[in-house]
Amino acid sequence: MAELLTGRSTTTSVENSDKLPVCFSPGLNLLVWLFQPSHALGTQLVRYLRNQDQLQLAATCCHIRCLVIPHYRLSLKKVPEFIYHEAVNQFLCTYRPAIRYLFIQLGVDLQPDWSDTIRLFLSQIDHLEHIDFGVQNPVEWPAVVRCLDHLPPSSVQKLSVYFRDTYTEPLQTYQDNEKQYFSEALYGRLSRIRSFSVSGIFTEESSTDLILQMLAPFTSLQTLHMYVGNPDDRLCREMAARYSHLTRLALPHSRWHLSLLLGPRPPVFNRLVSLEFMCGDNLVGIQTLNDIVAADYPCLLRCSCLNYLA
Question: Quick check: 73 and 100 in contact, CB under 8 A?
Fold first, then answer.
């Protein structure tokens, strides 16, 4: 099981608790103290450890094992392969570890019961911080995101999706799928998401309406990362109107009209802490940057400009 979670072989399995050594040392005493439930030092330490490091730490000896397991923060990057593996499912059911990152790659050769299988898999997770989907086509997004229905309400603060194919369906097709798969509970869950990342290639005819339709449920975002190809003026204006409350905005590899996003005075995005965008050889965009006044963005700590020339 450890090999599945880490991608490497390990000689000691965390499940073999009866065979763990009993040992005493100053280092062990320090670890025992760090992972005491009376403080959060153990949780902070685990954030810097890979899956393999966490499992090997729990396998150090029986004294530390019971203290480390409640602090697990694992990353699973081989889904859906994991979903069909009995050992992984047994591990999740037994230890109920927190998952800090889960990547689910959905290809063209999906099993007919893929949705039910993923929802069953997610029902075994009590806490999930970030879930990342690789999806073939945006038209499938409503069916995919419906899987979040089976997570606890407090789970998932960060959601990412990458679309491999260009969207060519009519907007009505996406809207029909949304009506079919979205529930009031799902709308409520998406409204609590704090960070959303979306990447894909959209045709100019459908991009703005489709992107706005996809973004509409996310009403409480603090962080937004978007790569959408060629955003038009209407999308820029709608972004400024709907998401002026953002604290982190990343618009890489896309030629946004910065004068519509950053040009108005007083500025729209005056709560930004971090801003990333591509300026290229757009003279209007460069002039917009020159006109930015520091006092207009009092919270801004990081500004990154990607200057790709056409």
Answer: yes
Q: Is 130 within 8 Å of 157 (Cβ atoms)?
A: yes
- Distance, in Å, from the CA atom of 203 to the CA atom of 246, rounded to the nearest integer, reads 26
| CB atoms closer than 10 angstroms to residue 289 | 14
Q: Are 204 and 234 in contact (CB under 8 A)?
A: no
* Residues 216-255: tens digit of each pLDDT: 999 999 999 998 877 888 998 999 899 999 999 998 877 7
Out of 71, 93, 114, a domain closes at 71
Q: Which domain holds residue 14?
A: 1-71
For residues 283 and 197, membership in a common domain is answered with yes
What's the whole-model pTM score? Answer: 0.81
Of the candidates 228, 231, 158, the residue with the CA atom closest to the CA atom of residue 199 = 228
DSSP type of residue 223 = E
Quote the number of domains for the chain.
2
Integer Cα distance of 121 and 123 in angstroms: 5
In the numeric block, the tokens 């965009």 are attached to 285
Reading the block at residue 262, the tokens are 């950053």
- Assess whether 43 and 138 both reside in one domain: no
Interstrand relation of 274-278 and 248-251 (parallel, antiparallel or unpaired): parallel
Give the model's pLDDT for residue 80.
61
Helix (H), strand (E) at residue 305: strand 302-306
CB burial of 201-228 (b: ≥16 within 10 Å; e: otherwise) equals ebeeebbbebbebbbebbeebbbbbbbb
Residue 194 shares a structural domain with residue 205: yes
Can you tell me the distance from the alpha carbon of 74 to that of 51, in angstroms, rounded to the nearest whole number? Answer: 6
Kindly tell me the sign of the dihedral angle through the C-alpha atoms of 258, 259, 260, 261.
positive
Here the tokens at position 166 are: 């260009």
